[in-house]
Design brief:
The complex is a heterodimer of chains A (about 120) and B (about 110).
Chain A lengths: L2 E4 L3 E3 L5 E8 L7 E7 L6 E6 L6 E3 L7 E6 L4 E6 L8 E9 L3 E5 L3 E5 L2
Parallel strand pairs in A: 2-11
Antiparallel strand pairs in A: 1-3, 3-8, 4-5, 4-9, 5-6, 7-8, 9-10, 9-11
Chain B lengths: L8 E4 L5 E6 L9 E5 L6 E4 L13 E6 L2 E6 L8 E8 L5 E3 L3 E5 L1
Parallel strand pairs in B: 1-9
Antiparallel strand pairs in B: 2-6, 3-4, 3-7, 5-6, 7-8, 7-9
Classes of the chains: A mainly beta (about 120), B mainly beta (about 110).
Chain lengths: ~120, ~110
């Protein structure tokens, strides 16, 4: 079945980096773009941007430039989100979601909790 | 910045009909999407492109649009439908935006 499986929870100190993975299965990885969202506790999801899985070209939403990097390893159908210089306000659940013009963001990963604390 | 406006909460008794609205100026030009999110779980798409239902979503979930408002309708609400519901759409610069969310309470 179609699914996105994300890496496990992370506890990091301020200033450190984290890399979240999102492994796709059950469909052709390069046929769907991959989006990333951040959801702070009790808040709406915020769209962080997306990466074209056929070209590797990333697009970052306002507020998610500089410290945030989207990347791919198409050989293992996996997308990555790396966040550097972590701050306490980066503590949130991060989701990946595949996207197509025909069906939108129809499949989401289970989420990865990133906690930034000294 | 572009905003989608939802009511914070909606309450309904089991078997009744719940309607959750989402207003945004660009909705006549951009599709609306709806997600259900239960505590500790990822969002699940329940409506795409204003009024289409993904496979596996019960028929009691439906969507509609009128002017600048999209509406999610749950007919014959069940206890399991209690969740947060978020609308999503794009602004005119293809930036995705989520509404503030509506907590559906089944009395």
């Amino acid at each position: 079945q179609v699914q996105l499986v994300q890496s496990g929870s992370e506890l990091k100190k301020p200033g450190a980096s984290v890399k979240v993975s999102c492994k796709a299965s059950g469909y052709t990885f390069t046929n769907y773009a991959m989006n990333w969202m951040r959801q702070a506790p009790g808040q709406r999801p915020d769209w962080m941007g997306w990466i074209a899985t056929n070209t590797g070209n990333p697009t970052y939403a306002q507020g998610f430039t500089g410290r945030f990097v989207f990347s791919l390893d198409t050989s293992v159908s996996t997308a990555y989100l790396q966040i550097s210089s972590l701050k306490a306000e980066d503590s949130a659940v991060y989701y990946c979601a595949r996207y197509s013009e025909s069906h939108g963001m129809d499949v989401w990963g289970q989420g990865t909790t990133v906690t930034v604390s000294s | 910045s572009y905003e989608l406006t939802q009511p914070p909460s909606v309450s309904v008794s089991p078997g009744q009909t719940a309607r959750i609205t989402c207003s945004g100026d660009a909705l006549p030009k951009q599709y609306g999407y709806w997600y259900q999110q239960k505590p500790g779980q990822a969002p699940v798409m329940v409506i795409y492109k204003d009024n289409k239902r993904p496979s596996g979503i019960p028929e009691r979930f439906s969507g509609s649009i009128s002017g600048t408002t999209v509406t999610l309708t749950l007919s014959g609400v069940q206890a399991e439908d209690e969740a947060d519901y978020y609308c999503q759409s794009a602004d005119n610069n293809d930036t995705w935006v989520f509404g503030g969310g509506t907590k559906l309470t089944v009395l």
